[in-house]
C-alpha cells in the first residue's frame, strides 16, 4: 500500500459544508459518495461536487494531512479551496 498514490480530497456538500477524506482511487471514491455509499457524513449532507484534492506518495503523510484539514474550520477550508490559504503544512 505504501507504493500507491494517495489523495486527500474535499467534497462540498449540498448544505454548504465540506467533507474531507483520503483514498487511493479518487474517481472511484467520488462515485461511491455520489451513489450514497461514501461516508455517513456525505449520506446525511448530500454531495454537490469534488472541490479540492492533493496527491501524496505514502499513506501516513496523506492521513496526517487529512486529519489536519478535518480539524480546520469551514472558513479555513474555503480559503484552501480558493487558493487563499498557502502554508507549508509539513512544518510543525
Automatic annotation (TrEMBL):
Belongs to the UPF0213 family. Coiled coil: none annotated. This is GIY-YIG domain-containing protein. InterPro entries: GIY-YIG_endonuc (IPR000305), GIY-YIG_endonuc_sf (IPR035901), UPF0213_domain (IPR050190). PANTHER family: UPF0213 PROTEIN YHBQ (PTHR34477). It holds the Pfam family GIY-YIG. Transmembrane segments: none annotated. Residues 4-79 form the GIY-YIG domain. It comes from the Bacteria.
